Backbone:
């Protein structure tokens, strides 16, 4: 199963999504934690459109989602 499919499953399993938290690894190797509380459906669609099946950014594959929590 691809990471994108797992992300989709995790999002879909929540009856009510209150937050999306993602850990993004940057090209430098540092990790950025992003927490979204608003406009969650659009943020979810953003991740689907911006990241490939391995959750690497289409524009720069050195940027990737390494973990997430759907709350």
Residues:
């Amino acid at each position: 199963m691809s990471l994108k499919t797992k992300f989709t499953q995790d999002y879909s399993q929540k009856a009510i999504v209150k937050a999306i938290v993602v850990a993004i690894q940057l090209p430098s190797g540092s990790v950025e934690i992003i927490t979204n509380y608003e406009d969650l459906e659009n943020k979810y669609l953003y991740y689907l459109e911006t990241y490939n099946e391995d959750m690497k950014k289409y524009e720069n594959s050195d940027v990737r989602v390494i973990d997430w929590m759907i709350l």
